């Protein structure tokens, strides 16, 4: 079973135990003793299976089970044991004696077990990892408060008998003993005080500020030999490499109603009134200079060069590397096109609505020499406007005539927040590059599906056969690209159902090659645990998308020094996929769920961490700056899942004026 299946099973068992304990309490209070006894046995059995699922989860990684092992199970175990001891024998006896009463204390114990089961489940969903003292204290105080309230209510129902030994049934009356009464009053008062104290302390601890920075086991301050630098001074060169030329573009962000090539209007935010924005194509060594102007995008705009390792001052991260460009303003980006490959650009300001509405375009850098150019080279950015999926600016299927034997390159770009599926029917093919970086000796594959993470790119190469080839998008035969051999007059063959094709696993694709470092010697190691939880996001409480239980901007910065070898363990505790994206550095994939990457070295800027998965990646910190590190599901990013990687000695003069929309 996969980790996420164990997570779901554990949730189901936990929910079942809540249901059983509550049902036991309710039936006992209603004096349905025979039924209550049966339910009690059920509650105990379900509770006893819980350690099995929790231990299995702990085996998959402590992050998946910590709050259950340290809080949920001990709390439930103690309450369940008390309930069995206090209520069990009385229920057993009462089940054959109609009308016999169970003392209030017994019913309260049963309900307390139910509260403990419920609170454990709620902690998993609302707090998650890591467990804090605050969470633990609040949880314990809630269980105590529930027990006390139940005792009050049941005691009142039992008439004047507030004595905890009073039966819920009024048929038997316990002798009133004033010393017992006052003793129980004292116990109640003490328990109430403890519950209130724990609760208040727990809530108070919530307001304790988080660590501002984590160091991943490295020193807090590096050598100190490097003079401090502002991110504003980390800018690109102003001239191309020898032999290169300068590409100058002006992109104007503006709102527009755009007619798609396939018909249909989109109410969009655009660069230059186009969807996608103008394609930027350069040759290795060229200088790319883009003047960004903002006409009327109220929230402001930037240009972020996704996957392109530009100097930090060119990265387009508002509040970190620049101020967002307001209507009427402009910003000039300059960087050298040193990396060959398929990339894209998009705004990083208010990116959750703004990229979705159209502020994106493609960036392709071709080799200067040596590389063999394909006869047909198509850049295919996929995007979803409302429910309309387009490739380029066209819905449905586009067709191209191709000479048989011609080499073809398809540059697949996912500009959405969810993964897309591609299938290439009618030909063998190779995935020659991932996220712009060439793979080592990629083998020929056929009838395999490609799952492209949000923000990711695959370069697919094929030799045009004498029969048609279809690139199928999301298993929809009406959507994608059809390549027809020139002069082809026959009927197109029926497309196969691609939904059953196995996914090409890039961790085991291509041939191994040497990599520039041994990741076991990392200077710093950070763990990033992704989940949902109650947390502050941009100053507001939210059911946030969290990193280590916190939302942006309360997630501590990760500190590195230039030259450090940095390792990440990225854990997904949640039930949604998180395409993790670090700016400014490609990361080398080491392993997924403990299985080492065994194919070509895989360097990516976005990797999909699916529910229950644990990824190990590493990179060399060679690009000084302040870099966003976030989920590229832009809704998740907006809901808190973003932090910063900060180089020692680098500061920023920019203030994130609109934290919520960065
Ligand atoms: Cu996410």
TrEMBL record:
<feature type="region of interest" description="Disordered">
    <location>
        <begin position="215"/>
        <end position="248"/>
    </location>
</feature>
<protein>
    <submittedName>
        <fullName>FtsP/CotA-like multicopper oxidase with cupredoxin domain</fullName>
    </submittedName>
</protein>
<feature type="transmembrane region" description="Helical">
    <location>
        <begin position="69"/>
        <end position="92"/>
    </location>
</feature>
<feature type="transmembrane region" description="Helical">
    <location>
        <begin position="104"/>
        <end position="127"/>
    </location>
</feature>
<feature type="transmembrane region" description="Helical">
    <location>
        <begin position="133"/>
        <end position="154"/>
    </location>
</feature>
<keyword id="KW-1133">Transmembrane helix</keyword>
<feature type="transmembrane region" description="Helical">
    <location>
        <begin position="37"/>
        <end position="63"/>
    </location>
</feature>
<feature type="compositionally biased region" description="Low complexity">
    <location>
        <begin position="220"/>
        <end position="231"/>
    </location>
</feature>
<dbReference type="InterPro" id="IPR045087">
    <property type="entry name" value="Cu-oxidase_fam"/>
</dbReference>
<feature type="domain" description="Plastocyanin-like">
    <location>
        <begin position="553"/>
        <end position="647"/>
    </location>
</feature>
<dbReference type="InterPro" id="IPR011707">
    <property type="entry name" value="Cu-oxidase-like_N"/>
</dbReference>
<feature type="transmembrane region" description="Helical">
    <location>
        <begin position="186"/>
        <end position="207"/>
    </location>
</feature>
<feature type="domain" description="Plastocyanin-like">
    <location>
        <begin position="257"/>
        <end position="369"/>
    </location>
</feature>
<keyword id="KW-0472">Membrane</keyword>
<dbReference type="GO" id="GO:0005507">
    <property type="term" value="F:copper ion binding"/>
</dbReference>
<keyword id="KW-0479">Metal-binding</keyword>
<dbReference type="Pfam" id="PF07732">
    <property type="entry name" value="Cu-oxidase_3"/>
</dbReference>
<dbReference type="InterPro" id="IPR011706">
    <property type="entry name" value="Cu-oxidase_C"/>
</dbReference>
<dbReference type="InterPro" id="IPR002355">
    <property type="entry name" value="Cu_oxidase_Cu_BS"/>
</dbReference>
<dbReference type="GO" id="GO:0016491">
    <property type="term" value="F:oxidoreductase activity"/>
</dbReference>
<keyword id="KW-0560">Oxidoreductase</keyword>
<keyword id="KW-0812">Transmembrane</keyword>
<dbReference type="InterPro" id="IPR008972">
    <property type="entry name" value="Cupredoxin"/>
</dbReference>
<dbReference type="Pfam" id="PF07731">
    <property type="entry name" value="Cu-oxidase_2"/>
</dbReference>
<feature type="transmembrane region" description="Helical">
    <location>
        <begin position="12"/>
        <end position="30"/>
    </location>
</feature>
